[in-house]
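Quick illustration, no need to memorize.
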Amino acid sequence: MTGLKIRAIGNSQGVVLPRALLDRYKLRAGDVLHVTEAPDGSMRLTPYDPAFSEQLEAAEEGMVAYRNALRELAK
């Protein structure tokens, strides 16, 4: 586990990620990280947008439900 300290950055506050973490997860300056909260109150920091995952699941359900129509449209 890596501890991160909240620091003042200009007029804001933030955390600085150690180089080892950036390298391990292939993160670069400008990448967007998303914070999600678990039911137990813990937080998860991830580069994957949870809203996009939900949209992708809905699209996959639609593709299954309308498989024949999509096949005809592709012709």
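The longest helix spans residues 50-65.
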